[in-house]
Amino acid sequence: MNMQNQSYLPFVKMHGLGNDFVVVDERGITPRVDATLAIAIADRHRGVGFDQLAVLSDTPNADVHLTFWNSDGSLSAACGNATRCIARFLMDETGRDALTITTDRGTLYARDAVDGLTSVNMGHPQLRWDEVPLAYEVDTLSLPIDGTPVATGMGNPHCTFFVDDAEAIDLAARGAEVEYDPLYPERTNVQFASLIGPDHLRMRVWERGVGVTLASGSSSCATAVAAARRGITGRKVQIDLDGGTLHIDWRDDGVWMTGPTAHVFDGQWRL
């Protein structure tokens, strides 16, 4: 990524299971991405299109700092698939097999999981109502919302419904409704999951500030945690999303997510 021509903003397009990202490298330069620019780039007809835009910047505390923009111009503290994709990009760039990454969520650790897979530790889940956050004190395992979903924080808020058949849900309608439920003052990501085998879930995702997405890493982590807390699965699960499969392992040191990444193309945005 070369910033020599100030009329253009170089970027990389990547995806994890169809959950797609524009990645901008602001290491060593003056920041250029803001909400207005993020919204313009996000337009899939007039721009590039993405589920999240990730910005790399310098930090003395890790190999890189990541900032995440949603397609509506809002910020998110966490984006698991983007973190995984960028970790793979940086490992390929440097030849290393492990990295330390800071985000607004905290410090995350990434490693090469061999066979083209990348693992990221997304940190410990936030299980208390005020950590998610919710608007008032309530049992996060049984929310007073139709369908009694589970609330989980993964640096961003999540609302997970366990249903008989995730395929049968009107995701666009229900997701849009739940995202703005007053119980979630910062809005929420919404997941619908069904058990299809031992420690094996089928999940569909509505992302806060984005809409229906083919996959979501933080949503997968939240759903795995919720399923384990409910006793539906153990702490190590396979999650099949619309875009492919992620493996989630809730360990003592945090929630590890493993899956594939793809570097699609490089481009330049005319400023």
Task: Give a description of the structure.
With 271 residues, the chain is an alpha+beta fold. Helices cover 17% and strands 40% of the residues. It has a 17-stranded mixed β-sheet that branches. The radius of gyration is 18 Å and the shape is globular. The relative contact order is 0.17.
Task: Give the helix/strand layout.
Blueprint: E1 8-16, E2 19-25, H1 35-42, E3 52-57, E4 64-70, E5 75-76, H2 80-94, E6 98-103, E7 106-112, E8 117-121, E9 150-153, E10 157-162, H3 171-179, E11 189-197, E12 200-207, E13 211-213, H4 217-230, E14 236-241, E15 244-251, E16 254-260, E17 262-270
Parallel strand pairs: 2-3, 4-6, 10-11, 12-14
Antiparallel strand pairs: 1-2, 1-17, 3-4, 4-5, 6-7, 7-8, 8-16, 9-10, 11-12, 12-13, 14-15, 15-16
In short, what is this structure?
By secondary structure, the chain is of the alpha+beta class. The chain has helices spanning 35-42, 80-94, 171-179, 217-230; strands spanning 8-16, 19-25, 52-57, 64-70, 75-76, 98-103, 106-112, 117-121, 150-153, 157-162, 189-197, 200-207, 211-213, 236-241, 244-251, 254-260, 262-270. It contains four helices and 17 strands.
